[in-house]
Sequence to fold (424 residues):
Amino acid sequence: MLLPLNLMVNSLAFEWVPTPWGPFDGLLGYLPISLLPLLLIMRPRYQTVALWMGAAVATLFWFYSAQYLRYGLPIVALLCPLGAAAFESVRRNVTSGTLRRTLVTLILILAVAGAAVQARVPTYALDFALGRQTTAEYVDRYVFYCAGTTILQLLDAQPDAARAYALYDPPRLYARTPIGRSLTGPNGVPPDLRDPAAVLAALDAGGYTHLLISRRYLPSDWAQSQLMDETFLRRYTTLVGNGPNTYLYRLSPPNERAVAVAWTTGPELLANGDFSARDPAGNPRDWTMTTPKSAFQSANVATLPASGSALLIERENGWIATVPVISERRYLLDTASRSAAAVADTGGLTLRLDWHAANGRIVSSDVSSMPTDATQYHRFSLVASAPAGATTVTVALVAQNSAIWVDTASLRETVGGVDAGIGP
Fold:
């Protein structure tokens, strides 16, 4: 019985994403709830009864299926014209001019209050519906996954794309290639994501040929998943292309997995990428502190994947290095890092590439946030293209929410792949 009232003044209870923009956590405003009682005093007509019955059936179906506010909005839209007609009928039957003006004033107050609530609601749906925002921009900003729809178009352009596995569900309507999130082994049981062989067997059983990996929204078990481990990805996949924080990989067929496919080529561009060489002050050579709080420390060899030293970057601090590049070439910045705190950090290490022209002016920048785990090092990379006119790039390693250990940093030119991004 309280459903209509709760829909108006407690809309928060009927949304997956909380939307407390109005007073009392309301979203629809208060005009509809004030007009509905007037329907009870209207002279029943065939059309009115038909609308009532249709709205009642739709409400019951909505209530027992998916109680999301946005799915029930058409029902409210059906009842609003009836409520307005009922109000006009009541107003005409009132003989007192003062009472008429009072009724109109009350309705205006309720309408303004509802408009005030709506004015606080983000307008992204209106921007898209009214043509102020393109489909690609809408998908990129609010569907949380793709570099617009460009990364999906890149997937569709692959001649051998049969099915893609996605860690985070993308807008499938914009891709012709089937996309799935179900991962089960040949025996129908979900695989142990820590076991590379089990993950490969499940991908093969599902008929997956490509992987769509987004770092914007990570699964809770990302640190135990081979699908987020770049050591696994570089061994069994080929990088096809990427957008900001979104990567498309081609899974190597079983007959091609004996030999890993190289992702990079050419010489290493970062001198002292393992931070082992130090200057007299104890800081890593060829690197510059962005703030005085950063510190270099020698680490225990047993805790590191490769080298015997690591760089400790304090919270909200960083280190930078500048090296020459060739414009319009693609580069891969590779790092291995872990959290120095006791817990994992989903936005721990920020990788940034600032591309400079010959006069030192920044032409553009590419940024990506990497998660960090407190128990072990994880390998993550940022792939980006040097813009036209770029002659150097400044590599920045920045700790965001907690102190970060960085074991290695490498910058090399990529082998193949395309830039499917629309900008950070």
